[in-house]
C-alpha cells in the first residue's frame, strides 16, 4: 500500500465529507478512493469514517487520524518544497481565487512572473468578489481581504493596503470638495455592492458614514472609471489609487481622515500542502508583496 496516497485520499474525503467530491479533486475513481480509505482503516485497525448513503463523517478515531495524517502530509510537502527549491523544477496546476480588482491590478503580474520562472505550471484564476468555497470549487488558494480569516482554514498574511477617497478635478470644480465625512452624504458616492458605509479614523477616533450614489458595482474598476469621468466620489485601495493620483487623473479628498487598512490574506485548506506548488506560490507572492501599500502624499 502506498500509505501517503492513501492518507491523501482519507484527508480529502474527511475535508469534503464526500467520496465522490474527493475522487474528483484527486482525479481518481470513487472506487480507488474508497479502497485507499479501507486500506488506511485496515492498517490502523480502526474505523475512521461513518458512512451512510447521504453523509460521510469522522469517527472519534478518525478525528485523531485526520490530524496526524495532515501533519505527515504537511511535513512531506515541506520536504518536497525544500527539494524543489534546490532544483527549481516545479510543475502542475494551481487554482487561485481572488477579488476582481486585485486580480486585474496586482495578481496577474505576480502570476505572470511565477509562470515565467516555472513554465511547467498552469494557473487557473477565478476572479470574484464573493468568498469562494475552497472545497466545493476546488480552489487551492483564495486571496481575501478580511480582518479575521476563517479559523477552519490556514491563513498567511501577505500585506496591508490603505484606502483613500478621491474624485476627479472636474467633479470637485463642479460640486466642491467635502471637508468632513458628514458632507459625503450630500455627494454622489460610488460604492461597491458589498459596502453601505465608509469607515474612517482621525486622531484615534473612529467614524462611519452611510454613503449613496447613482452607481454601485461589484468591480472596483467600474467605479474607478466612473469617478475619472467626473461623475462622483469613490473610495479606492491605494494600489489602484496612488498611480491615478500621481498622474492627476484623480485627487485625494478628506486627507485628514484615514480609512482603515485592508489586510490581504492567502487562505487554503490543510490538504493543499499536498501540492508543493501551493506553498511555492504563496512564498513567491509574499516576497513580491513584502511592503504594505500606503497612501502617498502627492
Please identify the structural class as seen in this structure: alpha/beta
Could you tell me the radius of gyration in angstroms? 24 Å
Q: Sketch the topology as an H/E string, one letter per element.
A: HHHEEHEHEEEHEEEEHEHEEH
Mean pLDDT: 86
Question: DSSP strand (E) fraction?
Answer: 25-35%
Shape: elongated
What is the number of strand segments? 13
Largest sheet: 9 strands, mixed
Q: In which range does the helix fraction lie?
A: 40-55%
User: Any low-confidence stretches, pLDDT <50, length ≥5?
Assistant: none
Q: What is the end-to-end distance? A: 64 Å
How many helices does DSSP assign?
Answer: 9
Could you please describe the fold and organization of this structure?
With 298 residues, this protein is an alpha/beta fold. The chain is built from nine helices and 13 strands. The chain has helices spanning 3-16, 19-26, 30-44, 60-87, 100-117, 169-175, 220-228, 238-246, 276-288, and strands at 49-51, 56-58, 91-98, 120-127, 141-145, 154-167, 189-192, 197-202, 205-210, 216-217, 233-237, 251-253, 259-268. α2 (19-26) crosses α3 (30-44). The model has no long low-confidence stretch (mean pLDDT 86).
Amino acid at each position: 500500500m502506498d500509505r501517503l496516497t492513501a492518507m491523501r485520499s482519507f484527508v480529502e474525503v474527511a475535508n469534503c465529507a464526500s467520496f465522490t467530491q474527493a475522487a474528483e479533486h484527486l482525479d481518481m475513481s470513487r472506487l480507488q478512493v474508497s479502497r485507499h480509505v479501507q486500506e488506511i482503516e485496515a492498517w490502523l485497525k480502526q474505523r475512521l469514517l461513518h458512512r451512510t448513503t447521504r453523509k460521510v463523517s469522522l469517527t472519534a478515531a478518525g478525528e485523531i487520524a485526520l490530524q496526524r495524517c495532515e501533519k505527515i502530509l504537511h511535513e512531506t510537502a515541506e520536504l518536497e518544497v525544500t527539494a524543489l527549491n534546490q532544483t527549481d523544477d516545479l510543475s502542475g496546476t494551481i487554482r487561485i481565487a481572488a477579488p476582481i480588482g486585485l486580480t486585474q491590478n496586482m495578481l496577474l503580474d505576480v502570476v505572470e512572473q511565477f509562470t515565467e520562472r516555472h513554465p511547467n505550471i498552469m494557473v487557473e484564476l477565478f476572479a470574484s468578489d464573493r468568498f469562494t468555497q475552497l472545497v466545493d470549487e476546488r480552489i487551492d488558494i483564495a486571496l481575501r481581504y478580511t480582518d479575521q480569516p476563517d479559523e477552519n482554514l490556514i491563513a498567511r498574511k501577505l500585506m496591508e493596503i490603505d484606502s483613500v477617497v478621491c474624485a476627479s478635478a472636474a467633479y470637485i470644480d463642479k460640486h466642491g470638495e467635502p471637508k468632513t465625512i458628514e458632507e459625503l452624504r450630500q455627494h454622489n458616492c460610488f460604492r461597491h455592492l458589498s459596502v453601505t458605509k465608509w469607515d474612517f479614523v482621525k486622531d484615534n477616533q473612529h467614524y462611519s458614514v452611510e454613503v449613496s450614489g447613482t452607481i454601485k458595482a461589484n468591480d472596483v474598476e467600474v467605479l474607478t472609471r466612473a469617478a475619472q469621468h467626473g461623475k462622483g466620489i469613490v473610495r479606492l485601495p491605494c494600489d489602484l489609487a496612488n498611480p491615478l493620483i500621481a498622474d492627476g487623473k484623480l485627487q485625494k479628498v478628506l486627507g485628514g481622515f484615514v480609512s482603515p487598512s485592508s489586510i490581504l490574506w492567502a487562505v487554503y485548506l490543510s490538504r493543499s500542502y499536498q501540492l508543493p506548488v501551493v506553498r511555492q506560490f504563496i512564498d513567491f507572492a509574499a516576497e513580491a508583496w513584502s511592503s504594505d501599500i500606503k497612501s502617498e502624499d502627492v
